[in-house]
Structure to design on (279 residues):
């Protein structure tokens, strides 16, 4: 199917590498679509269909879409007891191993990749390369060849749970980005120093710009959480409940208890984006 009617661009980045700033492809920017092919996008205004619509029309594709957080959305589940230790170990790997492999070397941002996180594809000596963590293994890909190695103090189930959290967050952030094009949204990127995945959205000139993102946990948060962090706007009231920073948060235990987790996450972010826009 992918070799015929559809071209996968969303949330699962693929070569070729981008050699101009920001040195990362935009998974939801159609760019030049080859004649005779249809682009599958998360939103209607950037393609013919969403993967969710395809999964509804062709249920046999549901598991394929769900594994990649493209559609047929699966639920986030309770975290394994090994999550905190694995998160700490993978945070170190992100900073010390994965991010330094990115080209050019002064670019540090990572992204969600299937089963974990990794660099955008980059070119090295004529080959498309990527370094990523996939289900707790370090993968170094060069062209069609790849090597895999286990990582210390990393539990596979916990690493997979982390990858699912990033995949869920990335799908929500890309939807927010598509729903609010007038807010000058940035790329969705994963920042190794804080290990969070986020975008910037809103008018900077009007003092309404903010970071919208998801963190797998930190010194003030033992569990993952979604957040909205205004750059300059002074905020107060029940919408702005964050601990350890000025803004809003939705903690993991509350998120997974929701009947519709994606609707809850998108509603959390959208409500606060609109509140900032109205200040």
């Amino acid at each position: 199917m992918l070799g015929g009617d559809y071209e996968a661009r969303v949330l699962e980045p693929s070569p070729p590498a981008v050699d101009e700033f920001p040195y990362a492809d935009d998974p939801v920017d159609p760019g030049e679509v080859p004649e005779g092919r249809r682009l599958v996008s998360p939103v209607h205004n950037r393609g013919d269909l969403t993967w969710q619509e395809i999964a509804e029309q062709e249920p046999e594709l549901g598991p394929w879409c769900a594994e990649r957080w493209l559609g047929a959305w699966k639920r986030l589940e309770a975290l394994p007891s090994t999550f905190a230790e694995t998160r700490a170990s993978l945070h170190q790997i992100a900073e010390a191993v994965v991010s330094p492999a990115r080209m050019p070397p002064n670019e540090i941002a990572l992204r969600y990749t299937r089963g974990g996180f990794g660099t955008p594809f980059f070119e090295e000596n004529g080959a498309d390369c990527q370094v990523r963590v996939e289900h707790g293994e370090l993968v170094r890909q060069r062209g069609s060849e790849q090597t895999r190695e286990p990582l210390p103090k990393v539990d596979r189930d916990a690493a997979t749970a982390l990858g699912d959290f990033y995949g869920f967050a990335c799908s929500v952030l890309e939807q927010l980005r598509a729903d609010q094009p007038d807010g000058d949204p940035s790329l969705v990127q994963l920042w190794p120093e804080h290990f969070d995945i986020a975008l910037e959205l809103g008018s900077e000139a009007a003092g309404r710009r903010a970071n919208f993102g998801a963190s797998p946990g930190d010194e003030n948060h033992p569990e993952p959480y979604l957040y909205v962090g205004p750059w300059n706007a002074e905020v107060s009231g029940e919408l702005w409940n964050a601990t350890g920073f000025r803004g809003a948060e939705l903690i993991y235990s509350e998120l997974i208890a929701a009947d519709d987790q994606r609707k809850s996450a998108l509603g959390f972010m959208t409500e606060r984006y609109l509140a900032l826009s109205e200040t």
Remarks:
- The two ends are 47 Å apart (CA to CA).
